[in-house]
């Protein structure tokens, strides 16, 4: 068996797999960069949003893993980390010295796996600053593996870790757990696999066709007790007062200060992304570069090949062409927005603010059958629904994924659309803005509440670690932004291309006009809008902003404007996000969300028209 | 009593967690039968924040109702 089947990482013959393992936010990436230098590859683990960075250290391969509290299968990060760790040859375990009691659980688990281990005891500066004293030699003696104190961000101790990496040793295992392991070791190939079997890991049990032994809790408890015992022996002097960072953390959590702070932060993000990036930057990338230089070039090439008036020309370089619409949309419009969103999300994540936002919003989201973690795809939805729908993978249960996907598809306007909506509604004044916002909010709340009531099962609870508040490191934030953007582009571009082909097909066969005509009577009779508004709605399937932009050409009363904007917000998301929904969810679920959004859009729009017009 | 009834600043001792999945995850974070922790913050109607030395964990209110505790002071 090989760890890297899913990842497609090439491991040269005879090379060792050096695996970096540690809890979240312990500074693993600094060690990774120090070991591998510049040549680093990133592989996505199929079906997850989890990436594995890998590079070379001499002739050996170094693999990073997502930060986890232990090796098991409680979420995607853990499943991926587990897959890499159990087949690693040498483990470099990065430990946050300040959170020794939390981090040593993983360390002891790695030792129980029977892997050669070296521990980097990181953040020793934080330890000193808090007046804590740790007996490093004693820790090394108890664990039976080398322990090297480091301050990675200042480069302290890194060379020592590099020099001593091959000194990694098998640690001292828990005697009781060793006893359990002896009992099953001939049923599997590796000790790491045996430990996973002991800990009732479903995937491993399935691999070997074994029944669970129901020992996990017992083993975890034994390990936890040993951690507490070790901590009491090696921590000579503990912290004596709450830190300033903890105080900032409470400030973020307390609703009286936390809610205004959250609103202020979101406002800044909106100003930067919604105004600067969506306006100025996209103006340059989409209009000047893509539509000004790129598209004419492509049109020229394809009209020379196929003539300027053939169906082939239109398929490749026409209004909805594969090489015109797709690159302009993905690179010109979406990429700057996606970069900006991931930049802010990484900033929030690395500063420790994101988990606190999740805690703060947990109560509100619980009405809709979601927990605080769902705030992440919801915020991302204001950037791009396609990107946000992919991110729903991080939610705990199937029902949470359905609810979040439905809310995203139905009610959240993406940034492409938001710009046009804001532009149309601003001149109408506060009253109409309020009508728009209230309507969308009511639909959001009702949809969430109803789905929460209707869907069977239970949602998962919020149970998250709140890492210390700290100033994020720019290099880390930029690296995260880049890997996430790259992953999105790789995953989404084929979907947008497929979308362009479908639209070209509908257009060439005149089906597009047929669909528009089908919707025209609803538009005129129910929504009380001009017949042409139906075109705008249908164009919204291609790109949501196309639809919204189509409305600006019509002569509408303020009431009609609000009705049409509400309808287009609720109306089906763009074709790429529909494809993503079909990819992520079952056919039946995706279809229900899709058709549901048609019905909701006309229903809510119709009610609003009845009241207003 | 249960964790949702703890008051901010109280030192508490975990008695039991009545959710199989969370109980196992919680051991890893140092929350298990007999662990001494602190109720370090409470978001009105929302999660309870448990402090364990320098580590903090946010526990959803509904989950807190399934965590049995004793108050030490």
TrEMBL record, chain A:
Gene3D superfamilies: P-loop containing nucleotide triphosphate hydrolases. Mg(2+) binds at residues 33-34, 36-37. GTP binds at residues 22-29, 47-51, 64-67, 122-125. InterPro entries: Fe2_transport_prot-B (IPR003373), Fe2_transport_prot_B_C (IPR011640), FeoB_GTPase (IPR050860), G_FEOB_dom (IPR030389), Gate_dom (IPR011642), GTP-bd (IPR006073), P-loop_NTPase (IPR027417). The keyword Iron-sulfur does not apply. It is a multi-pass membrane protein. Residues 15-171 form the FeoB-type G domain. Keywords: Cell membrane, GTP-binding, Ion transport, Iron, Iron transport, Magnesium, Membrane, Metal-binding, Nucleotide-binding, Transmembrane, Transmembrane helix, Transport. CDD domains: FeoB. The chain crosses the membrane at residues 261-285, 329-348, 368-390, 402-426, 432-451, 495-515, 562-582, 591-612. One of its GO terms (molecular function) is metal ion binding. It is found in: Cell membrane. GO terms for cellular component: plasma membrane. The keyword Oxidoreductase does not apply. Its main location: membrane. Probable transporter of a GTP-driven Fe(2+) uptake system. Belongs to the TRAFAC class TrmE-Era-EngA-EngB-Septin-like GTPase superfamily. FeoB GTPase (TC 9.A.8) family. NCBIfam families: feoB. This is Ferrous iron transport protein B. It comes from Caloramator australicus RC3.
Automatic annotation (TrEMBL), chain B:
Residues 1-71 form the Ferrous iron transporter FeoA-like domain. It holds the Pfam family FeoA. The keyword Iron applies. Signal peptide: none annotated. Keywords: Iron. GO terms for molecular function: transition metal ion binding. This is FeoA family protein.
